[in-house]
Amino acid sequence: MILPEKYYYLVIDFASFAFPFLFSFHPRIKFYKEWKFYLPSMLITAFLFIVWDEWFTIMNVWGFNPKYLIGINIGHLPIEEILFFLLIPYCLSFMFHCLPLGINLKENIVGESTNNDWMKYFNWGITILIFTIGIFNIHRWYTGFTFIVTGIFLALILLNDNTIQFPWKRFWLTYLLGLIPFFIVNGLLTSTPIVTYNNTENLGIRITSIPVEDSVYNLLLFLCNISGMKLLKRKN
User: What is the Cβ-side half-sphere exposure of residue 59, based on CA atoms within 13 angstroms?
Assistant: First the structure.
């Protein structure tokens, strides 16, 4: 039986979420024990991104193809898009949790104590680059806003790194590995297309069918979820 087109986005959401969720209860992984730290962080992040999403949808920075939606909206956002911020970040957070378990690397590679001089230089270099691109493209809403906010958020974490002790190497390695499912999921969303973009509000540079801004947007989404989870865990 061929899946009706209106369920495409919904299926992408739940298919992406299913594997990490089921394996969260694996006796070696036990990610469900992190939920008390992860869920508050995820809900706060989701709320902020949904507000941002609603704003950009109203401004026609991006939009959604009704052909691939079930037709239930909250504000201007399809329910599938709301679910995206509740389900998709779980996948990267699950990968972040599993990384030390699945890769035989020393503590100074994927553990918590991962900050040294070259990592600080790398982080500040990425932060300045992202922020600068945002400033030079401030007239493009998707590029300017996404890059500037990401740069500021990275800088805030770096300036408080001695307190937060953010596991940067583990974070970046997870982000790089996560680009594989990212290109699959976002490729499906943008090539169908389920999500459409106003190219006057972005750089017009695409990786296959994916706007390059999506990779920074994904970085910020992942960073917010993990930093929130780590802060809650440290306070506890």
Answer: 13
Distance between CA atoms of residues 182 and 27, nearest Å: 27
Q: What is the pLDDT of residues 21-64, one digit of tens each?
A: 999 999 999 999 999 999 999 999 999 999 999 999 999 999 99
- pTM score of the predicted model: 0.92
CB-based contacts of 115: which residues, under 8 Å, 6+ apart?
A: 161, 165, 166, 168
Nearest to 166 by CA among 177, 158, 156, 175: 158
Our CA dihedral for 200, 206, 208, 213, rounded to 10 degrees, sits at -100
pLDDT tens digits, one per residue of 145-184: 999 999 999 999 999 887 778 999 999 999 999 999 999 9
Domain ranges of the chain: 5-235
SS3 8: helix
The answer to whether 71 and 5 are in contact (CB under 8 A) is no
